[in-house]
């Protein structure tokens, strides 16, 4: 099982690209250096789409940006790929979440074919704390 999941490098990149482009808006709590009652706000969705980090096509869904020359997933610094944060508040379920996403996606893509119910309809986002498809 672990070995099979390890082989799914492109899927890993595609799921990561979803997290990059669709990360939520997140309010963080004081971590020591701010005054009591204050908080810091990290706008992940903006960071995930910054051209200074990700280049001119930052708004484009392109999993290949996270694949290296050998076809392996390219690990980015967590200060650049911020979906799971880093340091003291790093997501404790990061590996678990990644594994679950991979298993579900692999099973769904193996047994189902996905297509839009209304092909001519334009797809837009519904901006919420997480990014929904409208
Ligand atoms: C794609 C799925 C997930 C994403 C994008 C995600 C993202 C994050 C982020 C950004 C934080 C830091 C929050 C902060 O700055 O205060 C965090 C914290 C945390 N996450 Fe996740 N998470 C995911 C799934 C999970 C899962 C499945 C678990 C548990 C099985 C989990 C457990 C935790 C815990 C316990 C913390 C708090 C860590 C701490 O403050 O010490 N997460 N997560």
From TrEMBL:
What cofactor does this chain's UniProt record say it requires?
heme
* Root EC class: oxidoreductase
Primary location group = membrane
Chain sites annotated for binding heme: 91
Keyword presence, Oxidoreductase: yes
Q: Where in the cell is it found?
A: Membrane
Topology term for the membrane: Single-pass membrane protein
Q: Which reaction does it catalyse?
A: 4'-O-methylnorbelladine + reduced [NADPH--hemoprotein reductase] + O2 = (10bS,4aR)-noroxomaritidine + oxidized [NADPH--hemoprotein reductase] + 2 H2O + H(+); 4'-O-methylnorbelladine + reduced [NADPH--hemoprotein reductase] + O2 = (10bR,4aS)-noroxomaritidine + oxidized [NADPH--hemoprotein reductase] + 2 H2O + H(+)
Q: Which UniProt keywords apply?
A: Heme, Iron, Membrane, Metal-binding, Oxidoreductase, Transmembrane, Transmembrane helix
Q: Which family does it belong to?
A: Belongs to the cytochrome P450 family.
Asked if the record carries the keyword Transmembrane, the reply is yes
For this protein, what is the EC number? 1.14.19.50
Organism, as annotated: Vanilla planifolia
User: What is the protein named?
Assistant: noroxomaritidine synthase
Q: Which GO terms describe its cellular component?
A: membrane
Tell me where on the tree of life, at the top rank, the source sits.
Eukaryota
Q: Which Gene3D superfamilies match?
A: Cytochrome P450 (1.10.630.10)
UniProt GO MF annotations: heme binding; iron ion binding; monooxygenase activity; oxidoreductase activity, acting on paired donors, with incorporation or reduction of molecular oxygen
The stretch of residues making up the signal peptide is none
